[in-house]
Amino acid sequence: MSLFWLDHYAHLSSPMHRWEARYKLIGLFALMFSMAAVNDLRLAPVMLVLAAGCFLLSRLPLGFLISRLRYPGFFLLAVVLLVPLMSGETVLVQFGWLAVRQEGLGLMLVIVARFVSILTVSIVLFGTQPFVTSVQAMAALGLPPLLTEMILYFYRYLSDMAAMLAQMQRAMWLRGFQGHRLSSLPAYATLMGSLLLRSYAQSERVYLAMRLRGYGAAPRSRGQFRATGYDRAALALALMCAAGLVAATWWL
Q: What pLDDT digit, counting tens, does each position of 55-81 carry?
């Protein structure tokens, strides 16, 4: 697996790593949904503190978090920078026809805080246990087997497609391909089309091989999980934090 997968540090030991997978899914998903409901700037520091606390308890490297926030952050930055210029009525600063508005600036800060908090908690959730364990926990909580298998296959084929794409790009560059020119767009389109066709053919071959080996005939196990008092206490704490955020949002 490539280093960009979330469970690269699943072997570490921390309170988050020791939290039972089912309870961790419920607790942290509840916390993320409560963060998504926050729309008041006064609660943004609370969200960030909760996310930072989860991350510190996970003992994951800071560089691991930054590398996962970087690319989604670029996309978000390109979107939210327009919010202070288009939303609100109270003008704070004006440069000709451009005006930075107070309401839009507050909304931008809330969006950024929600993005950082939710993504940090999700990285803690999936980075402190193997991805297969996370999927088994979803199945144990009642996720249909078909969906769990689709998640596992999608996760696996992301790695295959990334390796295949790198190999095809390397072959193009060795043949003198110049990717920075505008005229190279048709070549990129051909590359993506070829990648999709290859991945489809490979998935079909894998499916036929699985069918020949009896795929779908045997009942599927949902995994063995055992909860302790620590797991229940951690779940109760996470649910209390989530309920507190939702109550504070409603009250404010």
A: 999 999 998 998 888 878 888 887 787
The DSSP line for 87-113 is S-S-EEEEETTEEEEHHHHHHHHHHHH
Q: Across the chain, where does the E strand assignment appear?
A: 91-95, 98-101
Write the single-letter amino acid at 74: F
pLDDT at 1: 43
- pTM score, two decimals? 0.78
For residues 20 and 227, the answer to whether their CB atoms sit within 8 Å is yes
User: Which run of H or of E encompasses 60?
Assistant: none
- CA dihedral (237, 243, 246, 252) positive or negative: negative
One-letter amino acid at 249 equals T
130/231 Cα distance (integer angstroms): 18
Query: Which of 106, 105, 82, 91 is closest to 252 using CA atoms?
Result: 106
pLDDT band, residue 181 (cuts 50/70/90): low
Task: Considering only CA atoms, give the Rg of the chain.
Answer: 23
| Mean pLDDT of the chain, nearest integer | 83
Domains of the chain: which residue ranges?
A: 6-139+224-251, 143-212
